[in-house]
Sequence to fold (250 residues):
Amino acid sequence: MLWGCARSAPTLPTVQNDPPSAVTKETQTNPSSLLECEKLAYRLEGLEEDESALNEVILGDRSKNQLVGVLGAFYILPYVAAEGHEEEKRRLDSIQVERDGIYTEMKIHRCPTPTR
Amino acid sequence: MKSPLKYAFLMFVAVAVSGCSDTWSNTNIETAPGTSGVAAKTATAVKKDPASITVMKSDITDRPYNVIADIEVTVNKTTLFHQDPTPELVDQKLREEAAELGADAVILVRYGSVGISLLSWGSLDGKGRAIAFK
Fold:
């Protein structure tokens, strides 16, 4: 019954230092900081899209895997028909690691908090 | 003879399914790695309304906060016939737990993928960091 198993949520990152208590107007309007923030936001968007696509692939086989699970309770053979999507799950975990890295960079550049 | 038995079985399933809550859940709360847990002890004195807790996938990058604790919740569907748990249900559970801890928000929320687990035909795991603004 390893196929079709729930995937655990990725581990939370180690706590980083808080952003400075006074984020000055100067740092928020510095052109290079703004540009960097835009790039980071763009990368985040790309990761969101990848994540949605991967989740759709996994959820697409959910009904089939449940049926396989029920049949497999009586006959072992149906389990070979279950879709594990291990590659997609690994990719989702690495997307989360990338995302956590982007948040760290956003703190360093004092970017506005992402809206999502 | 078969027909009454079949009818009785279907009735049993219908009653069993209708009488149960759609989901059940379990929670694990841990000190966040890299913290001493002092903020958690201070915050638990003031419980909050779950509706006031913000839940977000991102970090808060422009406002200082104290980390209270890391929360992990798993939402499970009660039977094979119930709907799969959703990220929205996980968010709600995170809100409830964060409110108990006196948090202002749950950040860095991430979800697993719905699938079969040892105890349920459909489980969804979620993790987040409960924080309080300075």
